[in-house]
Amino acid sequence: MGPIEIILIVLLLVVVGVVGWGLSAYNGFIRQRNLIQESWRQVDVELNRRYELIPNLVETVRAFAGHERNTLEGIVRLRSQAQQLSSSEHGEVPSAERAQVEEQLTGAVRGLMVSVEAYPELKSNQNFLELQRQLAETEDRIAAGRRYYNANVRNYNTRIESVPSNMIANQFNFQKATYFEVNDPEVRSTPNVSFGEISYRGDAPAGGGATPASGQLGTSAPNELPNPQGQERGSIQFDQQNQFDQQPQPADRPTQYPDATEPPAQR
């Protein structure tokens, strides 16, 4: 075998290797993009569950707290906008507009639940307490889904920016996904949507006050992807007099997902 034949064989092997790597990288981007969309649908299911609970919550609060009319009207308006955006997107690629509306809706519901502390009769209403419990569970599942989604977005974006996989991303127009962020500092500082007084991790100081703990609460065109953000869980409990009690919990109980490809448990 002459030197020319050896050079041709080497060039052929190099070409085959490059083509094989390119196909593998392209398929990897497709898998990760589909995983991001799938993980968003898990959040979308829980967001729609929240849409179903909000009308009953509004009617219950209206019956006991008529002075909260402006807040209730704002929640109804935001819920209607978010539901329309969800229907138009068919659960596929959430837009930045929907992300903003969902953020505003979360803040409005949170503000309402703080306001109802001034209405003892409402706080003792069994229908309201049950709605409060269901909303708390829904928010927990939304938070878990957002953490899983954000982990997948992080891995996908890292590959898009890394060399040499960024060449495949640029060639086939794979766009970076964005996180579903909450920009309200007050929402970021609380571990959950506040249903009444918030029970924080740690021991309560003298006088019955709660000790704050840090927490977070947490989509685009055909080639853009959604962007939810995670949130730490809070705990809310009532005593027999229908008031919130401080429940100490272990300080180190973070919820972690060791592998972004493993979705959170479905309830």
Automatic annotation (TrEMBL):
It holds the Pfam family LemA. Residues 198-267 are annotated as: Disordered. Keywords: Membrane, Transmembrane, Transmembrane helix. The chain crosses the membrane at residues 6-26. Its main location: membrane. Residues 216-234 have a biased composition (Polar residues). Residues 237-250 have a biased composition (Low complexity). The keyword Transmembrane helix applies. It is found in: Membrane. InterPro entries: LemA-like_dom_sf (IPR023353), MamQ_LemA (IPR007156). It is a single-pass membrane protein. Belongs to the LemA family. This is LemA family protein.
